[in-house]
Amino acid sequence: SMQCFPGLVLALSSLLGALALLQLSLHLRVPSRYGKHEERLCRPRGRLPARCAWFLQELPSFLVPALLLALRSPPRLEPLGCRLLCCLFCWHYFYRTFIYPFFTRGRPFPLQLLFFGMLFCIYNGFLQGYYLIYCAEYPNDWCTDIRFTSGLLLFLLGMGINIHSDLLLRQLRKPGEVTYKIPQGGLFTYVSGANYFGEIVEWFGFAIATWSLPAFAFAFFTLCCIGPRAYHHHRYYLKTFTDYPKSRKALIPFIF
Ligand code: NDX
C-alpha cells in the first residue's frame, strides 16, 4: 500500500515551482491563448464547448484527491486537520468542476490547452492530496493554531470573492452571447481581475492553513498563472473601452 515519500513531495513541489516560473516567463508578455486573448482567425475545429472543456479540465483536481482520501486504508482519521484541509481543496474543485462549467457562457476552449490543463490538474490534485493524506503531520490542536484559523479565513474570503466575481462575469452575457462588456460591481469596482484576485487569496490562505511546501508551490503557481492574466485583461479593457473606469487597477485593489 502507499506510504509517504518525503523526497517525492519535495521533487513534485519543486517541479511545480519550476512550472510556475516557466508559465511566468512564457505568459508575462503574451497571454495564454484562450478566452478574450485567443487569436482572431482560429479554426472552430480543435475546440470544445466551454462547459465540457472546464468540466474535463478541472475534474481530476477533484477526483484524484477525493479518491486518495476515500481509498486510503486504513482510513486516516487523525488528526482532524488533514482531512479537513483535504476537504477544503476538494470543495473548491467540486465547485469548479460540477457547478462553474454548467453555468459558464464562455467561448469554446482550445483542445490543446485543455490537454495541458488536465495534465496540470492531475499533477496538482495528486500532489496536494498525496501530501495531505499520506505525509502531513499536524498536532491534534492544529484546528486552533493561528496559521490554520487565519489561513482558513483567507481561503473562505478568497473563495467568496472568486465565486461572486465568476457570477458577475457570467451575468454580463445572455445565453449564446460571446461579446465582452465592462464588468461592474463587487470587487470589479476596484480591479479588472476580481475573480483572479479571489482565487489567489484563496490558495495563499490554503497554503497558510496547511503550512506546507506543496500548497505554497501551488499558490505561487496560481499567482504566476493568473496574476499576469489579470494584467492582460486590464490592458485589453483599456484598449477596447474608452470609458473604462480610470481608477480601476489590474489585480490588487488600490495598488496594482
Ligand atoms: N485552468 C488554472 N503552461 C487552467 C486553464 C489553462 O484552473 O501549458 C490553470 C485553471 C491552463 C492552466 C490552468 C494551467 C497552465 C496551462 C494553461 C493553458 C496553458 C498553460 C496548462 C490549469 C500551460 C505550462 C506549459 C507552463 C504548464 O468567452 P470567454 O471564455 O472569454 O468568457 C469568460 C467570461 N468573461 C466575460 N464575459 C463578458 N464580458 C467580459 N468582459 C468577460 N470577461 C470574462 O467570464 C469566461 O466564461 C468567464 C471567466 O473568464 P476569465 O478570463 O476571467 O477567467 P478564466 O481564465 O477563464 O478562469 C476561469 C476561472 C477563474 O475563476 C480563475 O480564477 C480560475 O478559473 N482559474 C483559471 C486558471 C488557473 C487557475 C484558476 C489556477 O491556477 N488556480
Automatic annotation (TrEMBL):
Give TM segment ranges.
109-134, 146-165, 203-226
Q: What is its EC number?
A: 1.3.1.22
Task: Name the GO terms of the biological process aspect.
Answer: androgen biosynthetic process; cell differentiation; sex differentiation
State a single Pfam family of this protein. Steroid_dh
Q: Which InterPro entries match?
A: 3-oxo-5-alpha-steroid_4-DH, 3-oxo-5_a-steroid_4-DH_C, SRD5A/TECR
Q: What are this entry's molecular-function GO terms?
A: 3-oxo-5-alpha-steroid 4-dehydrogenase (NADP+) activity
User: Might you report a single GO cellular component term?
Assistant: endoplasmic reticulum membrane
Q: What subcellular compartments does it reside in?
A: Endoplasmic reticulum membrane; Microsome membrane
Q: What's this protein's family per the entry?
A: Belongs to the steroid 5-alpha reductase family.
- This chain's protein is named 3-oxo-5-alpha-steroid 4-dehydrogenase 2
Q: Which organism is it from?
A: Spizella passerina (Chipping sparrow)
Q: Write the lineage as a comma-separated list.
A: Eukaryota, Metazoa, Chordata, Craniata, Vertebrata
